[in-house]
């Protein structure tokens, strides 16, 4: 399972990169809006820092305007992936971009049917939002399970990118089910390193060593 950082903050991205686990970055308009400064400069900086795919979302809601934004975005760096909301206009955009050899990430996916359509249109990634489904009382992880089965049934090459990840149990389940990739905030990434027995064990080793 590839691990991406869900952040537009360059310090967080550097911190995650130093751990050696990050193979890409996902941003969204909310994450970029939190950062100070010119968003294009920030995106350029992220793309320099990370060799792998960097998802940046279009803001337009009509396909022609989405395509115009995508044309500008791909000029920023070769590793940009165009994030497109899974609407009718978004599907048209994904299809066009696929035909032009531009990678896409279908976002705001809340059902397996939406993801299957995005895959048919040629999306590189589909991003089901697990945490937001949990928030409304559904089992978000079920969509990952369904998509692994559906994409395997029809040998679809679109990658399942588990998104809206809130805790380490989401991470564990996505890996167990077989998501191709997961995007996580820095706090979830750091949380993955924690285990109380590691802390207790380390304290004991150091205490024993001090007595030597
Ligand atoms: O970037 C998309 C997704 O990961 C957003 O997560 O926590 O805002 O639901 P969240």
CATH T-level topology:
TIM Barrel
| Ligands, deduplicated | SN-glycerol-3-phosphate
Class from helix and strand fractions: alpha/beta
Average pLDDT taken over every residue: 98
The total count of helices amounts to: 11
- Gross geometry: globular
- Which band does the percent of strand residues land in? 15-25%
Instruction: Please state how the strands of the largest beta sheet are arranged side by side.
Output: 1-2-3-4-5-6-7-8
> Which residue ranges are poorly predicted, with pLDDT under 50 across at least 5 consecutive positions?
none
Looking at the overall shape, the CATH architecture is Alpha-Beta Barrel
Give the beta-strand count: 8
Rg value: 19 Å
Distance from N terminus to C terminus (CA atoms, Å) equals: 43 Å
Order of helix and strand elements from N to C terminus:
EHEHHEHEHEHEHHEHEHH
Tell me the major beta sheet: 8 strands, parallel, barrel
Oligomer: single chain
The proportion of residues forming helix, as a percent range, comes to 40-55%
Q: Domain count, please report it.
A: 1
Report the CATH C-level class. Answer: Alpha Beta
Assign the CATH superfamily: Aldolase class I
